[in-house]
Design goal:
single chain; alpha/beta; six-stranded parallel β-sheet; 12 helices; 17 strands; about 25% helix; globular
Length: about 350
C-alpha cells in the first residue's frame, strides 16, 4: 500500500497544497527525505509565486497531479549539509529554482544545460529518482542535491532575489544565448509582468536599448521612469506599431495568454528573432511569410542550466537587480492567485514563509 505524504519520508514538513483542479490551496502536512550525503537541507524563508504555479494548481497544462505543493522560486538558509557536500555550509543563503534533478550524463547535462535534459526533474509535481513526489517551496523546509542549489550573494535581499531563480533566469538565458546582450542592440520586451519587468532590468544592465510592448497604456510611466526602459509601445495602437516597424534586433515575448504574433514580426529588422518565454495554453498562429520575409526566427527558451543560473544571480548582485515584489503571508495565497490571474500585481508576489507559515495553521 502506498504511504501517505506524511509517512513517505522521515523528515516532517509542512506546506500549502492544492488538492484538485479548483486550485484552492490549504495547509498540508507531508515529509521530506533525510539529508543524503550530497544533499543540502534549508529552511525556506521566501517563495515567489510564478505564473506557472497558477497554471499547475488548476491543471491548465494537463500534467498536474494532486496533492500539489507549488513553488519554484525558493530562497532560504542552510540548516544541514550531507557529508560529501563541498560548496555549501550551514548558515549559507541559498535558493532552488525550477528543477531539482537531471540524469547528469546526457549531452545537455554535460554542457551545463540540465534544463534541457529529457529526464529533468521539476521542483514540484513530478517524481524524484526514488519514485516519490516532488513538493515545492510553499513549505517550511527544502532538501535538494547540492548540484541544484544556487548560492545567493549577501548583498541581495532574499525576498527580492527569490523570483530571479525562475523569472530572472528565464529572461537572462535567451538574452545571452541569442546574442541580444550586445550594447547598441535594440530589444523589445512584450508584456510587463513578473517576467517582463525583470527582462527590462537585465537587458538595460547588459547595455541594450529596450522598448516595452504592452496592451496597457497605463504602464508607460512605470516602464520608463521606474524600470528604465527607453521607450514604450502600445501594441493595440496601429500608428505606434507602424512607426516602430523594422527597428528591433530581437524580442523577448513573456506573455502567457493567447496574443497575435504577426504585428511583433513587423517590429523586427531582417534576421531578427522573437523568443517565447511565456507559455499560452493554446497554440499560436504564425503565417509562413512572417518568417520568410526578412529571414526571421521564432524561438523558445526554458529557464537555464544551474551554472548559468548562478552566473545570472551573481550578475544581478553586481548590478543590484531584484524583482519588484509584494510580500504576502501564506494565508493570503489564494487571493494572490486570483489577483495574479487578473495581472493585478506589481510585479511578483513573494510569500513570507519564514514568518507566516506555521504548522498549526
Amino acid at each position: 500500500m502506498a504511504k501517505s505524504p506524511e509517512q513517505e519520508h522521515p523528515k516532517k514538513a509542512f506546506g500549502w497544497a492544492a488538492r484538485d483542479s479548483s486550485g484552492l490551496l490549504s495547509p498540508f502536512p507531508f515529509s521530506r527525505r533525510e539529508t543524503g550525503e550530497k544533499d543540502v537541507t534549508f529552511k525556506v524563508l521566501y517563495c515567489g509565486i510564478c505564473h506557472s504555479d497558477l497554471h499547475m494548481v488548476k491543471n491548465e497544462w494537463g500534467s498536474s497531479t494532486y496533492p500539489l505543493v507549488p513553488g519554484h522560486e525558493i530562497a532560504g538558509e542552510v540548516t544541514e549539509v550531507g557529508s560529501k557536500v563541498q560548496k555549501f555550509k550551514v548558515g549559507d543563503k541559498v535558493g532552488v529554482g525550477c528543477m531539482v534533478g537531471a540524469c547528469r550524463s546526457c549531452d545537455s547535462c554535460s554542457n551545463n544545460l540540465e534544463n534541457y535534459c529529457p529526464k529533468m526533474i521539476l521542483t514540484y509535481g513530478t517524481k524524484y529518482h526514488d519514485g516519490t513526489t516532488t513538493y515545492g517551496g510553499y513549505s517550511d523546509i527544502m532538501v535538494a542535491d547540492e548540484h541544484f542549489i544556487v548560492r545567493i550573494p549577501d548583498n541581495l535581499p532574499l525576498d527580492g532575489a527569490a523570483p530571479l531563480l525562475c523569472a530572472g533566469i528565464t529572461v537572462y538565458s535567451p538574452l545571452k544565448y541569442f546574442g541580444l546582450d550586445k550594447p547598441g542592440l535594440h530589444v523589445g520586451v512584450v508584456g510587463l509582468g513578473g517576467l517582463g519587468h525583470v527582462a527590462v532590468k537585465f537587458a538595460k544592465a547588459l547595455g541594450v536599448k529596450v522598448t516595452v510592448i504592452s496592451t496597457s497604456p497605463n504602464k508607460k510611466k512605470e516602464a520608463i521612469e521606474h524600470l528604465g526602459a527607453d521607450s514604450f509601445l502600445v501594441s493595440r495602437d496601429q500608428d505606434q506599431m507602424q512607426a516602430a516597424m523594422g527597428t528591433m534586433d530581437g524580442i523577448i515575448d513573456t506573455v502567457s495568454v493567447l496574443h497575435p504574433l504577426v504585428p511583433l514580426f513587423g517590429l523586427l529588422k531582417s534576421h531578427g528573432k522573437i523568443v517565447m518565454v511565456g507559455a499560452p495554453e493554446k497554440p499560436l498562429e504564425v503565417p509562413a511569410f512572417s518568417l520568410i520575409m526578412g529571414r526571421k526566427t521564432l524561438a523558445g527558451s526554458c529557464i537555464g542550466g544551474i551554472k548559468e543560473t548562478q552566473e545570472m544571480i551573481d550578475f544581478a548582485a553586481k548590478h543590484n537587480i531584484t524583482a519588484d515584489i509584494e510580500v504576502i503571508p501564506v494565508d493570503y495565497v489564494n487571493t494572490a492567485m486570483e489577483r495574479l490571474a487578473k495581472a493585478d500585481v506589481r510585479y511578483r508576489f513573494v510569500i513570507d514563509i519564514g514568518n507566516t507559515l506555521k504548522a498549526t495553521s
